[in-house]
Specification:
2 domains; alpha+beta; Pdz3 Domain; 6-stranded antiparallel sheet; hydrolase; 2-enoyl-CoA Hydratase, Chain A, domain 1; 6-stranded mixed sheet; ClpP/crotonase-like_dom_sf; 11 helices; globular; serine-type peptidase activity
Amino acid sequence: MSQKTKIAGWIAVGALAGALTTVSLQTVARGTMAPLPLEELQQLAAVFGMIKSDYVEPVDEKKLITDAISGMVSSLDPHSQYFDKKTFKEFREGTSGKFVGVGIEITQEDGLIRVVSPIEGSPADRAGLKPGDLITRIDDAAVKGLSLNEAVKRMRGEPGTKVLLTILRKDENRSFPVTITREEIRTQSVKSKMVEPGYAWLRLSQFQERTVDDFVAKLEDIYKREPNLKGLVLDLRNDPGGLLDAAVAVSTAFLPEGVTVVSTNGQIEESKSIYKARPEDYMRRRGADPLKRLPAALKSVPMVVLVNEGSASASEIVAGALQDHKRAVVMGSQTFGKGSVQTVRPLGPDTALKITTARYYTPNGHSIQAKGIVPDIMVDDTAEGSPYAVLRMREADLEKHLSGAQEEKKDPALEKEREAAMKRLEEESRKPAAQRRPPEYGSAQDFPLLQALAKLKGQPVKVSKTLVERKEETKTE
């Protein structure tokens, strides 16, 4: 653990850069720096000088430098990012579980902004935005050509102000405007319910600062209502990730003391760490360990973990740890595959650099980068199957993604599968919208949850006939 003493702040893993960002890690400055490439820096200075003296109109020097830094960082991978004063403030707000905005996780796709997931209960969720929606305009500005940071800035604002988003919904073959009123988003990252006597459902939608406390409170309530719990479903579907220490704590709640939860490995010494199921590896602040309040029975209650393509990063850590230690059965579809750690290094009082510094590994030493967690049992989204799973974006689909531990050759059948899925999607788009809306998680119509309950009861599970393991694809430059 000596290497961890070099870390001055938080270690976190996040899924996607977006309107809500839930990752943060700060490290102390190192005493040595890599040699600077003087010739290339001279060229950079020469270009700067030419733009200042010869460009058709005056340019702002500060903006030139900021844009150069942003371009340099964004060329690395999808998760490295430069934070200016405003975005750094918003970034820190996101880790606390509250911020002002519309409440969506986003990424880029073909120059547009793609909705990964609306935050439950947010203005975007109430306005009916859905995963997969493409944002083509923000107020009067076309999204094409905007960076992800610029798009986020335009959607953020003061509470009570409005923003007009133009949405392209491919599965309905239509484009439409949505006016959303910004508000302070207080994300509720943990939900629970008794689905039937003896069986509980616990959903984590993000891993934030207060997630562990909320998680413990929900479990205490479950055991108060059902002291002899027969089975628990931990639902991590569409959980984009968040703070690593929260993921370690959640895993620790179910695992034997002292076993490995996750390890990280990178170029610098402080990125080489092993995190175990013990308080010193998840307690960032002094005080009572909230996990001590949990009943001992939680360590052995039968469990199923539900995941899908939207389960990323910190949620993959939890699923991977419980799977490797054979503590739970993982069910659903293959996860997103974000197995990298980001470090946030302050550059001054109000700017910072978020840079990828390590990959993370499950207890058995498997890298999930660009592959994800493969469920023990593949289960479809609905009783009719998962005919559009092949179309869903994963880490391996993002431009400039890091490769995993092993490279697999590109599957020549994948494009044919996607073409067939697109044809099915076009046919589906002709149906009324109400028939295409998926059941709410945790509801009586939630097919994967019903299969998880069947597994816990020892009953037959309807295994998917459409989902197959998706190998990591070789990147092409």
